[in-house]
Every structure is written in structure tokens, then in C-alpha cells.
Amino acid sequence: MTQVVVGENEAIESALRRFKRQVAKEGIYADMKRQRHFETPLEKRKRKEIARRRKRRYSR
Predict the structure, then answer these.
(1) Among 6, 8, 37, 57, which residue's CB has the most CB atoms within a 10 Å radius?
(2) How far apart are alpha carbons 48 and 5 in whole angstroms?
(3) What is the pLDDT at residue 35?
(4) How many CA atoms does the CB half-sphere of 13 hold within 13 Å?
């Protein structure tokens, strides 16, 4: 669960930016998008293979 504690003199905009940064870092949006629709096993394998390729390409 992502939480942001707003300081006494902190603007709401800066707290909202911190919240959005934390949500993006934890991958909540990506997980939400992925679970929005049913994914067949074939689609899941393809997505994971593409992620492996992308990870391998940038790790060299």
C-alpha cells in the first residue's frame, strides 16, 4: 500500500508528485493495466519473452 504523509507546510501538488512517483516505481499502473483484461497463456509467454529480450539487450 502506497502512502504519502503530507507535511504541515507542504503543498498538495508536491505530495501528489511524490505519490505518483511512488506508484510508478512500484509498478502499480502496469499491474493494473495488465489485469484489466484476461490474458491468454500464449499472450503471457509472448509478453515475458519480450521483457527478457529487452532486459538482456540493456544489461550488456
Answers:
(1) 6
(2) 35
(3) 87
(4) 0
pLDDT digits (tens, 9 = 90+) for 2-17: 889 999 999 999 999 9
Buried-state track 20-57, b at ≥16 Cβ within 10 A, e below 16: eeeeeeeeeeeeeeeeeeeeeeeeeeeeeeeeeeeeee
d(C-alpha 28, C-alpha 25), whole Å: 8
CA-to-CA distance for 1 and 28, rounded, in angstroms? 10
Q: What is the length of the chain?
A: 60
Helices (H), the chain: 12-26, 28-36, 41-59
- What is the model's pTM? 0.56
